Amino acid sequence: NHQSFFILTGIPGMPEKNLWMALPLCLLYSTTILGNVTILVVIKVEQSLHEPMYYFLAMLAATDLSLSLSSMPTMVSVHWFNWRSITFNVCLIQMFFIHTFGGVESGVLVAMTFDRFVAIRFPLRYATILTHSVISKIAAAVLLRSVVTVLPVPFLTKRLPFCHSNVLSHAYCLHQDAMRLACADTSVNSIYGLLAVILIIVLDALILLGVLDIASQEERLKGLNTCLSHICAVMLFYVPLIGMTLIHGHGKHLSPVIHTFMANIYLLLPPVLNPIVYSVRTKQI
């Protein structure tokens, strides 16, 4: 028996249609859209910013914007209008976009690390190594990898029967959350989900560490100075993500508020703070 719809949940213990929740959300989404659109416009208009580093920053801004817009419709509908039901297929589409752009963000952060590494290690050959063609190929590879990895997830979820509860634990659809409600063996979904995380997140984290490892002590210090904003962005993305993954896997005894809080931080914080971090640290912008 398939559920034709799911019920989304706001913050546990708070009334759904809550002004105190609606206002910060409105502020967060406005700041995200304004900040990231500003970065995209500035990079497009300002000729001096037509360099590899800023192209990658534009990719990050576009990804942050997409990630925010993936969760925004249901977040706003739950907290502003108390519309909590979402059809099964719309839930699968949202799940696909949220997980895909999460993967793209991870890939873009690695590409930005590679860019800084080349700039510090091979300053004279920087422009010849990172040509427009190479940057386009990196962008296409990052997007394609994420799409191909996440694409099976909605189909694997669609084949599951849902006959118990249809109440999700967030105001948007995530794979681990929907899978939890199935009344059948979900080991294929669990294994594939784990493989996807290893293929994207773990691999990227290892590349990041590897790049830092290759750099010499002096390069690392110089790198830390020029890459401080980038390190902040990496921490902003990976720390909540790892926290959310651990809580989903091992935090059954924790309060639902903590689950919601971690998932919301993972989705809402990087897109808001990345433009601020880069604008403050990057004089040209």
UniProtKB/TrEMBL annotation:
| A Pfam family that the UniProt record links to this protein | 7tm_4
The protein's UniProt keywords, in alphabetical order, are:
Cell membrane, G-protein coupled receptor, Membrane, Olfaction, Receptor, Sensory transduction, Transducer, Transmembrane, Transmembrane helix
What GO molecular function annotations does the UniProt record carry, in alphabetical order?
Answer: G protein-coupled receptor activity; olfactory receptor activity
Compartments it resides in: Cell membrane; Membrane
Does this UniProt record's set of keywords contain Cell membrane? Answer: yes
Cellular component aspect of the GO annotation:
plasma membrane
Q: Where are the transmembrane segments?
A: 20-42, 54-72, 92-114, 126-148, 191-215, 227-249, 261-280
Instruction: Give one GO biological process term.
Output: cellular response to lipid
Q: How does it sit in the membrane?
A: Multi-pass membrane protein
Q: Which InterPro entries match?
A: GPCR_Rhodpsn (IPR000276), GPCR_Rhodpsn_7TM (IPR017452), Olfact_rcpt (IPR000725), OR51/52/56-like (IPR050402)
**Lineage: superkingdom:** Eukaryota
Task: Look up keyword Transmembrane helix and say if it applies.
Answer: yes
Domain G-protein coupled receptors family 1 profile intervals: 35-278
Q: So what family is this one in?
A: Belongs to the G-protein coupled receptor 1 family.
Q: What is this protein called?
A: Olfactory receptor
